[in-house]
Task: structure prediction
Amino acid sequence: MSNNLTHAPVEAADRLAAREPVEYMGVVGDMTERKRADEERLALARKLEESNAKLEEAQRVAHVGHWEWDLETNEVVWSDETYRIFGLKPQERAMNFAAVREMVHPDDRESLYGGVDVDLSVGAYPVAEFRIVRPSGEFRTVHAITSKRWSAPPVDSNGEASERARKLFGTVQDITENKRVEEERQALSRDLQESNARLEQAQRLVHMGYYEWNLMTGRVTWSAELYRIYGLSPQDGPIDMALVSEMIHPDDRERVFRESDEAIHSGVPASAEHRVIRPDGEVRSVHGLGTVKRDATGRACEMFGTVQDITDRKRAEEALQRSQLELRREQAYLAEAQGLTHTGSWAANFLTGQNHHVSDEIYRLHGFDPSKGPLSADSFYKTIHPDDEPVVWGIITNASHARTDFEVPEYRICRPDGTIRLLRAIGHHSPSGEMGEYVGITMDITERKRAETERERLRQLEADLARVNRVNLMGELAAALAHEIKQPITASVTSANALLRWLAHDPPDLDRARAAASRIEEDANRAADVIDSLRSFYKTGTPTERRIINVKEIIEQMSGLLSGEADRHTITIYSEVDPDTPNILTNPVQLQQVFMNLMLNAIEAMKDIGGTLTIRSRINPEKHLFVSISDTGIGLPTGSVERVFEPFHTTKPQGTGMGLTITRSIVESYGGRVWATANQGGGATLHFNLPCRGDAPV
Amino acid sequence: MKSSAVPTVFIVDDDGGVRRAVQDLVESVGLRAESFATGQEFLNKKRNSDPSCLVLDVRLPQMSGLEFQQMLADVGMQIPIIFITAHGDIPMSVRALKSGAVEFLTKPFRDQDLLDAIQQALQRDRAAREQQDEVHQLYGRYLALTARERAVMGLVVSGMLNKQIASEIGISEATVKIHRGNVMQKMQAGSLIELVRIADKLKPVLP
Result:
């Protein structure tokens, strides 16, 4: 039909289908065949009527009306549908611009009519969407198109409007429903997008992705999060089961597929925890779920499921388990420590008599079995010795009221088995600040107390023994000196006998007799000297008195004194005294005692076999006096060489076993040290060092 | 040897006073005395064949008296020893006496005890020297025997009869008798008993 049009752009007709019937109005005058004019006119009139009816119908169905607006008269002609759109009965009344304008929603009037002139002058046909107000008050949204062609004046040869339009023609369509549907669609689409985004977000948050596995085609679809879980990106392309299989940890692969096979066959949802190896090598733990969808025939056609990355959760769980383990271990350590130190911990309120915490050790300290269930605070209180009760409660009550810490230094309890133990309790006023709230410890000090008493007794004993030792040493000394005295006495006695014999000669040999007499005098003086040296040894003062002592002299003196004792056991004494041997500030008697003990000890070690005793002395790099006394005797006891310093360690039948112990306590009291080493060729060496106190001139 | 020879008493003591006093005492009874501070000095002294004895202090520097006694025995120097000590104990004296000491005196000793011990020691030395001289003489006679005579003498003193000796050595009984007669004559033995006694004395020096 377009070839019948004289001057209508084809595309305009196409664009506005609703206007098509109108075009026919313009072909009426083009008919030329007169002969069949009437017939044709009739036919045309019929056709036109039909067309009009169809147009009406079409307009009604499409909710499209048309209108004509005479710009000069401002008369407006509406089609029936236009009336309906405006909520009026068709052709209810004649319309004009003012009436139409009145029906346009006040807010839209300005924008609708404001551009009319401009639109016309530029020859455009405006498309407008605006609201109208029906007489019922109902708002409708309409879409109006103003036809350029029919609104414009006749055009020139170029098809351009040359004059201002006199009439506007156009259509109006009620798009309220469309608009609503569109809005709803948009809202829906927005919602869908939003919920997709939220789903995406949620998947990402819980590290859960989903998949669809078409069991017919083998096609696998993954959500974006699932890609991420597998260390991939949705851009990496489609997924197939071979790839999935490859990325599952080899140790888990068989189990995962067995699980899914079972799900496919039995219909029970699949559930498997397994590991995934990401392309970068990272191993993740995931939990997969899958349900199988079946078609109408009951055949499994698709598996749908979720995969959740539980690596972090697993790690957290493991860390938690570890820290729980750690906590349990620490608790065990604490219990062990409490057991070892006989110290228990508690938290209690003394005013309410409530125990918040009582460690197992507290039970044990009081003679209760912690495994036999908790005991009331009263059970513990009842164990307090009646004589100590007033003191204990006095301290605790005072502290409770003053809200201060307390200590019960020592109190007795009677255990259920009747044994008496000595306890000490320390309470720290609880930070909660409530009256009577305390945390604290209770320790069993029975053993400690006993040990203290014992130590005091031992200290006393040691002091006694040191005295005994010194007396013994004096005895040893006297024995040694006896030898020294016997020599001059023997000499003088022998000389006296010789003298007598010279006098008995006939004639008496007076010269020899005189010589003998002078030797007697000499030897007697020698004996007196020995006795003097012994006296000097005895009168060297009290142990606390200190003097600067020439160590070389002491060594000489001691070697001399003990040479007799050494001889008796065929022992030779050597001394290797370095000329630099320093003098030291000390008590002479105690230093002699040290030498005497160590030398007698060495002699004792060689008593039955004889040997060599060597005394060495020098100054060591720390400017300490260093002395060593070596023997070639039986050597040190096997095991710890330190044992020789232990009290009562003795190898002699009559020994006190205190000699070296006393030596050590003397040396250590001067800030020195004694130790023993085994000699390579047998025997032992005892060493000691003593600080010189710096001020002692060498 | 000649009994007129003056015996010598050697004294070893590191204590000069004791040393000089003992020497003076010994000289006061007409004996010769020589004293030394150490055992080594004594060893260096060339001794003659006169009887002698040694007064030895137990306590000596470096080597004790008892060790010195052992050393003398080891090198075969036979001299009677009297020990003197400032503090002797019983085990020490037992040990000394077992090793052949004449006496063990503790200082200060009675002069007569020492002098008696010295006389006893010199007597022992004298006897030892005489015995040594006799063995020396007998050994000279023994050296005069032929090898066969020595063999026969060995078998005779072991108590064998002539017949047994003949079969042992593989010679006639008559020949044994001749050898036996030579032995008795050369060894100056009057009887079999005497020959056995001579053989006993010679035993320490025979191979």
In short: Chain A has five domains: 2-174, 207-309, 342-444, 449-539, 543-698.
